[in-house]
Amino acid sequence: MIAAEVARRYAHGLFLLALEKNAVDLLAEEMRDIDNLLQVEKSLLSFLAAPQVRDQDKFAAIHAIFSGKVSKMLEEFLLLVVSKRRNSFLHEIAEEFDEMVLEHKGYVKTRVVTAIPLSEREKELLVHRLEAKSGKKVMLYTEIDPAIIGGVVVFLGDQIIDKSIRHQLDLLKNELQAVKVH
User: Fold this and answer.
1) CA distances from 174 to 144, 167, 168, 170 (A)
2) What is the pLDDT of residues 40-57, one digit of tens each?
3) In this structure, is the dihedral angle defined by the CA atoms of residues 13, 15, 20 and 26, taken in order, positive or negative?
4) Which residue from 179, 174, 134 is spatially nearest to 157, judged by alpha carbons?
5) Is 156:134 a contact under the CB 8 Å cutoff?
6) Looking at domain 107-178, which CATH architecture does it have?
7) 3-class secondary structure per residue, the chain
8) For the chain, which residues make up each domain, given as ranges?
């Protein structure tokens, strides 16, 4: 819970800066690159999180690694995150920032879970329906989970649409358990 709140606040601040400086696309690309780098180079994140490393050394490392490779805005943002000891949340901040950029551009990330893979035609129809429902362009990510038995579970922004057979069976089970037999 704290990670989500921290990520939201820092991403929001960076997003406002990006809007102000008309650099949304630039900062979005740079944040994705930094997030990818930190996912691969876990030692860098460990170094930045190490309490025995002086802040000046962390700042020098950030400057040495990123100076000239990312915008000054993002370099200063990284320095701020590290100085506030929030570097362990950089991945979450990057994800939240990406969500804000996509929303700003009229997109919504949508995860769809099915028991079996969807055909390309089914994906197209689903995207069309979800775009009509949300009023936004849908970026569809699919996932297979045989445990839902059949049907579909859609995570559309902050909405969950559960039309799975597993969910329907659970509802039926609850109804049957609630019936009093004399």
Assistant:
1) 26, 11, 10, 6
2) 988 998 898 888 999 999
3) positive
4) 134
5) yes
6) 3-Layer(aba) Sandwich (3.40)
7) CHHHHHHHHHHHHHHHHHHHCCCHHHHHHHHHHHHHHHHHCHHHHHHHHCCCCCHHHHHHHHHHHHECCECHHHHHHHHHHHHCCCHHHHHHHHHHHHHHHHHHCCEEEEEEEECCCCCHHHHHHHHHHHHHHHCCEEEEEEEECHHHCCEEEEEECCEEEEEEHHHHHHHHHHHHHHCCCC
8) 2-103, 107-178
25-36 pLDDT tens trace? 999 999 999 999
Alpha carbons within 13 angstroms on the beta-carbon side of residue 22 total 0
Phi (first) and psi of residue 15, to 5 degrees:
-65, -40
CATH code of the region 2-103: 1.10.520.20
Two tokens, residue 141: 């990510």
CB 144 within 8 A of CB 117: yes
pLDDT in tens, 102-139: 999 999 999 999 999 999 999 999 999 999 999 999 99
Closest CA to 92 of 10, 18, 28: 10
The answer to whether 18 and 24 are in contact (CB under 8 A) is yes
Contact residues for 137 (Cβ-Cβ < 8 A; gap 6+): 105, 106, 107, 108, 131
Tell me how far CA of residue 39 lies from CA of 35, 42, 46, 104, in angstroms: 6, 6, 11, 25
